[in-house]
Amino acid sequence: MMAQTLAGQVLSLAKRQPKKPAVLFKKVSLNYKELADQVIRCGTFLSGLGIQRKDRVLFTALSKPETVVIYLGIQYAGGIAVALDKNASAENAWQIYSDTEASLFVTDRPCGEYMDQMRVFSLRELYAACVEDLQTPAADPSCHLLSYRYPDKEDIAEMIFTTGTTGKPKGVMLSYRAVYQISKNTIDGIGILPEDRVLVPLPLNHSLALRELRGALWQGATVVLQNGFAFAKDLEKNITELGCTGMVTVPASLELVRSQMQDQFAAIIGRLRYMEVGAGSLSVRQRKEFSALLPDTDLNNTWGSSETGGALFTKVHDVAKDPVKIAAIGKPIPGVVIKMLDAEGNALSQTDHEHPGRLSLKGEMVMSGYWNREEATKDALREGWLVTNDLVYSDTDGYVYMLGRADD
Fold first, then answer.
1. At a CB cut-off of 8 Å and minimum separation 6, what does 15 contact?
2. CB contact set of 252 (below 8 Å; sequence gap of 6+)
3. At what angle do helices 32-48 and 123-131 cross, to 10 degrees?
């Protein structure tokens, strides 16, 4: 069965809303027509380099529009996109390149002693090829551009490499089915609207950043990229001048922003319609303080992972005044099924603080497995359920509470 894909959605949006801004970064602006044209050209160029269906293609994930183009262009060509941290060492890049048996590494980072062991192509040169001759319509047959072939929904779209608790990189394989469902869960759980301008100041190899990016583009919203949280002035400029209405962040970065902005924090961040905080739970203190400081901003704290995307959602304002629920990590969105397991792997009918269980999840969003990690995959995936090492319990309203790790 053909999959619903983000590349296909961008092509569709380019016809429905061609002039609407899709990706903004500083003075650079790509509308949906321009984004689609560049994705087509990127896919065509990669195909010319010999990239075929299911080939793994690594790329350095800069917080710039070209990363979005290359990420989608790889999938347009039928390849599997593998985003690497922009600060990844040459050794780390080689480790992932060799593990995935990649066909290409798109980067301008120095590769040192591994340069001759990898097929490397300049990211700048690839992107330059994507923007050349944009006056020629992509639909013109004389362009000899690659036609998009929709994949099957179980085909692998991308891999996210995570170290987890072992320190050894593991490639989380996400099918087109999973990517679509993760995007839908993000849209439904957070409430992203087509008219939103979503600020993404996180690295684009980060699972949380990718979730927000995909969700915003799927909705036909506008993504505003920013290179980290180091300078509060950049954040203020993007929110006030570019009219951002949403933002994704992590707890530590939100604290950093508050310390930088001080008494201006509420006035600036309070302009946002919503904010998603993930990759960690806000503390009880933070939930109380931020909900008081930002009464008109919809604060969402999400539990998720590279293996599932966002799965448990907390509307912070809904729990901020409840002395018990304020500590919850969230409750599952429709389409996400959870159960708790005892030490023998049996489902628990009831859990509480004294009798927790290992969190297990099921749904269309669950990964296909770990690349070349058969034992790790068998341990994590059991009859369609993803079994985590998180020790949790739930209450009668469906809220889930975290106690710690089963392997700690």
1. none
2. 280
3. 120
Alpha carbons 14 and 401: distance in angstroms, whole number: 42
Whether pTM > 0.90 for this model: the answer is yes
Distance CA(108)–CA(128), nearest Å, equals: 13
- pLDDT tens digits in sequence order for the chain, 408 residues long: 556 999 999 999 999 999 999 999 999 999 999 999 999 999 999 999 999 999 999 999 999 999 999 999 999 999 999 999 999 999 999 999 999 999 999 999 999 899 999 999 999 999 998 887 554 554 444 457 889 999 999 999 999 998 654 567 899 999 999 999 999 999 999 999 999 999 999 999 999 999 999 999 999 999 999 988 777 888 999 999 999 999 999 999 999 999 999 999 999 999 999 999 998 889 999 999 999 999 999 999 999 999 999 999 999 999 999 999 999 999 999 999 999 998 888 899 889 898 899 999 999 999 999 999 999 999 999 999 999 999 999 999 999 999 988 776
**Whose CA is closest to 308, among 225, 186, 198?**
186
Q: Which amino acid appears at position 273 of this protein?
A: R
Q: Who contacts 370 (Cβ-Cβ below 8 Å, separation ≥6)?
A: 170, 171, 172, 173, 376, 377, 380
Sheet strand arrangement including 156-162:
120-121, 104-106, 56-61, 80-85, 156-162, 170-175, 369-370
